[in-house]
Design goal:
alpha+beta; Beta-Lactamase; Helix Hairpins; Heat Shock Protein 90; 13 strands; histidine kinase; EC 2.7.13.3; nucleotide-binding
Amino acid sequence: MIKKGIGRQIVLHYFIVVFVTLFMVEVIFTLAIRMYYYDTIYNHMSNHSMWASDYFQKFVRLNAEGDPDYFTEMLRTFELDNTELMILDRSGEVKASTNAFQADKAIQTSDVPQALAGSVGKWIGRQTATGELVMAVSRPLQIQGQTQYIVRYVTSMESVNSKLLNLTFMSIAVSAAVLALVTLFSIGLANSIVRPINNIRAVSAQMARGKFDARIKGNYRYELGELASTLNYMAEEIVRSNQIKDDFISSISHELRTPLTGIKGWSETLTSGGFDPEETKIGMGIIAKETDRLIGLVEEILDFSKLQSNEMKLVIGEVNLKELLQETMLNVWAKAEQKQIQLKLEDKTEGSSIISGDGNRLKQVFLNVVDNAIKFSHEQSWIHLVISRVENERVRVEVIDTGIGISEEYLNKVKDRFFQVNHQGGGTGLGLAISQQLVELHHGAMEIQSELGVGTTVSVTLPLLNDSAPTGTQTQR
């Protein structure tokens, strides 16, 4: 007994489809073979009765109707093997018969009136006396267009029906064997599907309990193979995300501890007193700097939280990209000067580069990208900012540096949340993830091309301003 589940459904569906098909074939086969046998017998008797009708006029010329042997000779002339021959008059009375038992009353079956009407009569039914199933074929015997007698052939259908019954039983046996084979095949097919599903379900249950090191083993094909690969990939991604999360927690703990340590140390030192105004000023400056650093870390985490919960609000307006990039360069100019890095802006748009967007959020994007370029560039190098027009009324901003670059191994992961190529470099690993989402909120795209030891190019593509561009405050959806 197959237990409830997809296996039973597969077997049941196969069984029903094949059973209905075989049943229909069985019915059609039985009817067709019966029709074939019956029609063959009818045609044989009808052809012989036609010969008898055609020969009757010659028979009359050779035999006088008043002769006592007239009907006996007629029976001998028109007889047919394994068939009872009856000569009837116009009223259906039996004048002669090859059957030793004469009917005691006129024949009233439907074939007789048909023969009297001038056509071939056919009747299938059971004889009143014996209950035997017979077929009767009657045809008129005419002289000069007038029906004189009716020749009636009667044959038993019992042996034919017996053969038909045997054929039916044989076909039922074949159908049952086919149905059994199909059922066995469907059980095997169901097991081949259910076993992998049960295996996948068991491993999925382990993953649901937190055992993400569990893997689905087996070379499954088609959709099951894709499902197994997807679940294995999901587990790998969860493990990787957990590792990234752990690294993030470790990194953010360090990032928070460092400024807090500085703030606490200087606040205690300043509280103790005894410092001249210059030292006090230095201490307060360090406290303010570390406080700004903490605020930046917290704001970055809050921005990411808003983006994840679809609560980021954009204040949409007209933004001049060239002016925005110039402001960005001014904001990072001091940091670039420390490493003697040259910043250069080139506008290739040959016209206006005004877009519809949130200027503060876009500035946040470009600040993050340019800050990263400075952070990972060599001293006395350069960073090139290029604005250019692209197809479909869009504008592209490229930030090109000749820094350390990113290996192919990490290139597809740098925009993932919490991911950091160098954990010693500081930060939360959220900057590029936030930038990516902010660009997408502006219906744009951000791409990164890099080669280790050569440099990195970050491209941000945004739609240009059109007359129908919305303004005002929008919420992420």
